[in-house]
Specification:
This protein has 272 residues and is α/β, with parallel strands linked by helices. Helices cover 37% and strands 12% of the residues. It contains eleven helices and eight strands. The strands form two sheets. It has a four-stranded parallel beta sheet with strand order 2-1-3-4, sandwiched between helices. The chain has a four-stranded parallel beta sheet with strand order 6-5-7-8. The longest helix is centred in the middle third of the chain and has 15 residues. The chain is globular.
Length: 272
C-alpha cells in the first residue's frame, strides 16, 4: 500500500506547480491561518483544504487528485504528523523542490508534558487545546514572518468554561481527542477508543467502559458526529445517562460555532 502511495507521489513530481494556492492538511489549519492574517490586518492567501472529507482526520487519506494538490501547492501548512501520517512522505518529496514551501507544526515537549499520559495522536487535535493552538499560531506567525505585536493569543481562554463543569459525573467520549483536555480540568473522562490512525476500540477499552457504567448510575456521553459510534456501545447507554452530540472536527470556512464553543453550549444545556 505504501509503495503505491510513494509511486503516485513520484509521478506527481513531474507536473508543473501552481503558484497561488496554500493547501492546509486539515480545515482547522486553514481556519487558524485565516485567523492569523485577519488578526494582523493582512489579506489572507487563498486557502484550500487538502481533503474534501470532514471526517475525523485519523479516518481518511487523500485521494489521487488531493495528493496532486498537496504536491503542486506553492505552500502547504500541516498539522502534526501524528494527525495524518500520510503527510510525512509528501513533505519529504516537497523538500526536493526548492520553490515549494512547507510548514509543519510539531507539539513541543513542554506541552506534551503538561498532559500526562496523553497520546500525541490525541493532542494532535490542536484546535481542541487552547495552549497548543496558541503555540501553533505563534510559530506559524514567525514562519510567515508577520511582524510581532502585543496582541494576546485569541484562543487562550477558549476552554476556561470547563473549570465550572461539575466534576462528579464521568464523561465518556467517542475517542480520546478531548480526554486529556477534560482531565486537565479535573473531569473524569474516558474514551471508547484512541486516536491512532484507523484505530478501533480494543477489548480492554470496551471493558473499561462497562466498568465505568457499573460504578456510576449516571454518565455523560459525548458522541462525536464524524466518528463511527459502535452499535454495541450505543446499546450500553441508559435512560439515566445524558447524551450530547457534537462535531469536534469542524469545516472550513466556518459555518457556525467552533468545537469548544459548541461543547460549552451543550454542557450548559445538559446542566452538567
Amino acid at each position: 500500500m505504501l509503495s503505491k502511495f510513494l509511486l503516485c507521489l513520484f509521478i506527481l513530481c513531474s507536473t508543473p506547480v501552481f503558484a497561488t494556492t496554500w493547501v492546509c492538511t486539515h480545515p482547522q489549519v486553514c481556519q487558524l491561518t485565516q485567523d492569523l492574517y485577519q488578526s494582523s490586518g493582512l489579506e489572507s492567501p487563498h486557502l484550500v483544504k487538502a481533503i474534501a472529507s470532514i471526517l475525523d482526520p485519523h479516518e481518511v487519506e487523500p485521494n489521487s487528485a488531493e495528493l496532486k494538490g498537496l504536491f503542486k501547492a506553492e505552500v502547504v501548512i500541516s498539522a502534526p504528523s501524528e494527525m495524518h501520517p500520510w503527510i510525512v512522505p509528501i513533505l519529504k518529496m516537497r523538500q526536493k523542490q526548492s520553490h515549494l514551501k512547507s510548514f509543519q507544526y510539531n507539539i513541543s515537549k513542554s506541552l506534551k508534558a503538561k498532559y500526562k499520559n496523553a497520546s500525541t495522536e490525541a493532542l494532535a487535535h490542536f484546535w481542541l487545546y487552547p495552549d497548543i493552538k496558541c503555540d501553533f499560531y505563534q510559530k506559524l506567525k514567525q514562519w510567515i514572518e508577520i511582524k510581532a505585536d502585543e496582541k494576546p493569543c485569541p484562543y487562550m481562554a477558549d476552554a476556561d468554561f470547563l473549570s465550572e463543569v461539575e466534576k462528579t459525573t464521568p464523561i465518556i467520549v467517542s475517542h480520546d481527542a478531548l480526554v486529556p483536555l477534560l482531565i486537565s480540568y479535573g473531569i473524569k473522562a474516558y474514551s471508547i477508543k484512541g486516536s491512532g490512525h484507523h484505530e478501533e476500540p480494543s477489548p480492554k477499552q470496551l471493558k473499561n467502559v462497562q466498568n465505568i457504567l457499573k460504578q456510576y448510575p449516571k454518565v455523560l456521553w459525548i458522541v462525536e458526529k464524524q466518528i463511527h459510534f459502535p452499535h454495541s456501545i450505543e446499546q450500553l447507554q441508559r435512560k439515566s445517562d445524558k447524551i450530547i452530540k457534537i462535531d469536534t472536527n469542524n469545516d472550513f470556512p466556518s459555518t457556525g460555532l467552533s468545537a469548544l464553543e459548541d461543547l460549552k453550549r451543550l454542557l450548559q444545556k445538559s446542566e452538567l
